[in-house]
Amino acid sequence: MIACTTATPRATLGNSNAHRTFKFRSSRSRALNLVPLTSKWSSQVAVLGGKALPLKLRSWSQDSAVRQCKAARPVSAHASAAVADSGDPLEATRFSGQVKGIILGSGLCLLLCNMCRVCMSVAIIPLGAEYGWTPSTMGIIQASFLYGYMATQILGGVLADKVGGKVVMTVGVTCFASATCILPLAMSAKAVTLGAVVPLVVAFRFLTGIGQGVTMPSMNSLVARHVAPALRARAIGGIFAGFHGGTLVGLVLSPIVMSLYGWRSLFYLYAALALPIMLLWQAAVPVHTPAPGAPAGASSPLAMLSKPGVWAPIAANFVNHWGYFTYLNWMPAYFNQVLGFNLQASTLFSFLPWLSMSVMSYVAGWIADWLVNSGVERSRVRKLVQSVAFLGPACALAPLATTQDPGVALGCFTIALAAQSFSQAGYLANMPEIAPKRTGQLFGICNTVGSLAGILATTTAGIIIEKTGSWVLVFQTMVGVYLTGVVLFNWLCTSEKLVD
Questions:
Q1: CB-count exposure of residue 19 (10 Å: 0-12, 13-18, 19+)
Q2: How far apart are CA 115 and CA 242, in angstroms?
Q3: Cβ atoms of 423 and 320 closer than 8 Å
Q4: 3-state helix, strand, coil in the chain (%, to 5)
Q5: Residue 137: its pLDDT value, please?
């Protein structure tokens, strides 16, 4: 390992830029020479014991050279957490194999989350017909998932920061996959005779929500601890491409599976996918330990709320979930009621908007990281991309109040969801910046509020449609929520570290 001291560099500078040599003394008293690779000021190598180590110098100052020498040191697995929290963009160049494993594993886990979430939204129509459920009963069943999902957000974040996101994610996926598998088994003839079908379905959907509630905080805690700051937006974007891909796959695959093998097979299939995903998760994702120097018991979830900047991602998550759950639960109904499509056509018509959201999640992260690495202040980048995420849908939804053209409606929803995907590079990437060692806890708080927004949004839309029979007020309400979110986030957002 190379350890550089702050010895004064010796340089030989002439009129030409072609020959410069710097010398440092290592902790073992060996000379470290910085020898030029080219005539450019930014390309140098460090020569130690006959071995060349590439360095990238941004200036010829002593501080710059010393920092680059430190960057050339081998980094142990235990030091990776410190690298992720350092905040120095010089530490980040590209994804390591470890980070790629986190992105792939987390993306697949969240893909399965959304597939198991969406399957009930598709299956509830034939289930309602088979068991004679009323619309209010179906609403209770759908809401039971969200109540379970909301219940474990903060707990999942606290546990992820303490024992590691890998462990908590494993427990969460095991829980919701098991509940998904057992649900059709519980709906037996005996349960029908006892009148226990609805309570059992509510219970197992609640358990599904309980398991899924810890997955998001676990993912964000892993990203904060293992991914360098200048790469986090891309990492989160890649993971959320999988998350939104789960909605896409679930909406398209579920009707096909049900038509071929019945609704029970849908739950068995999605639950069975947890096994290969968990095997990959265990192999690809590193064991997560608390960051060195993290003060035990500091910055409790409630203590975070005293920081105004913490309320920026909380408010943004509320707005994001208001829109997300409205699209998820009501977009097929809009295509059916307003445009006259049948259920299968409505589901397939939702394909393009969710596809755009999945693809643009990574694109948004790439754009945000490019801006940060180009020297734009992080807080300005977060505000910019989050403004796109909220102003885009606000503008796209406006024509839906006056049109019944399927092509226009599809274009509006596609633009709205594509724009909203920029939230992954906005408030989601902001959380590890303001609370690098408590990201799981902060995400738990945000997603608890977001789950409440999902319940309120879904209920509000249903009441408006039932009372007025018009979708105009639904879209106007969403536009108002989006505009409020833009104002609050730009007012409160900061990228400075706020929570120890």
A1: exposed
A2: 11
A3: yes
A4: 70, 5, 25
A5: 81
Query: 478 is written with which tokens?
Result: 């969403």
| DSSP string computed for 316-353 | HHHHHHHHHHHHHHHHHHHHHHTS---HHHHHHHTHHH
Task: Say if residues 255 and 347 touch (Cβ distance below 8 Å).
Answer: yes
The confidence score (pLDDT) of residue 459 equals 83
Nearest alpha carbon to residue 292 among 68, 86, 5, 72: 86
16 phi, psi to nearest 5 deg:
-90, 150
**Residue 367: which H helix or E strand, with range?**
helix 351-373
8 A C-beta contact, residue 26 and residue 72: no
> Angle at Cα 487 formed by Cα 483 and Cα 488, nearest 5°?
115
State the Cα–Cα distance between residues 212 and 113, nearest whole angstrom: 6
pLDDT number for residue 407: 87
Identify residue 201 by its one-letter amino acid code.
V
CA distance 64 to 84: 20
**What is the third-level CATH fold of 91-492?**
Growth Hormone; Chain: A; (1.20.1250)
- Residues with Cβ within 8 Å of 162's Cβ and at least 6 positions away in sequence, in order, are 290
Strands 22-25 and 31-36: antiparallel
Lookup: tokens for 424: 């992954």
Domain boundaries, the chain: 22-74, 91-492
Write the CB contacts of 335 (distance below 8 Å, at least 6 apart in sequence): 341, 345, 346, 349, 350, 406, 409
What pLDDT is stored for residue 392 in this prediction?
Answer: 97
Query: Taking the CA of residue 349 as centre, how many other CA atoms within 13 Å lie in the half-sphere pointing to its CB?
Result: 24
**What digits encode the pLDDT tens for the residues 382-427?**
999 999 999 999 999 988 878 888 889 999 999 999 999 999 899 9
Radius of gyration over alpha carbons of the chain, in Å?
26
| Spans in the chain with pLDDT lower than 70 | 1-93, 288-301, 343-344, 500
Q: What's the CA gap between 52 and 302, in Å, rounded?
A: 50
Lookup result for tokens 């194999």: 97
Q: What is the pLDDT at residue 295?
A: 46
| pTM of structure | 0.72
- Provide the 10 A C-beta neighbour count for residue 318: 22
HSE-CB for 99 with a 13 A CA cutoff:
24
Position 62 scores a pLDDT of 42
The candidate with the shortest Cα–Cα distance to 362, out of 191, 281, 468, 241, is 241
pLDDT number for residue 475? 93
DSSP state at residue 79: G
Give the amino acid at 381: V
Please tell me the distance from the alpha carbon of residue 227 to that of residue 86, in angstroms, as a whole number: 10
